[in-house]
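TASK: fixed-backbone design
INPUT:
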């Protein structure tokens, strides 16, 4: 689940916290009825909890850590090259 969140550009902790807070309230919904009946679960209410759709309604939780780390690695490599030239 964490990898799915990161792959979709979602901050994992915020997404998981929100999903786990909302899931208990879906017990009376369409997905729960389908699962209870042994049918394939196809539910718009659960689809809204998928990372890519969730991010649309929570844009302030975009995962930026990869960008930050990439910039830090780039700066570190740049400093290393600079030191070699001296």
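OUTPUT:
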């Amino acid at each position: 689940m964490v990898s799915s969140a990161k792959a979709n550009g979602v901050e994992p902790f915020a997404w998981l916290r929100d999903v786990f807070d909302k899931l208990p309230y879906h017990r009376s919904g369409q997905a729960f009825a389908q699962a209870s009946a042994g049918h394939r679960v196809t539910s718009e209410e659960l689809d809204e909890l998928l990372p890519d759709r969730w991010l649309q309604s929570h844009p302030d939780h975009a995962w930026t850590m990869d960008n930050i780390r990439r910039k830090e690695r780039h700066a570190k490599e740049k400093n290393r090259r600079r030191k070699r030239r001296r």
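COMMENT: DSSP finds six helices and no strands in the chain.
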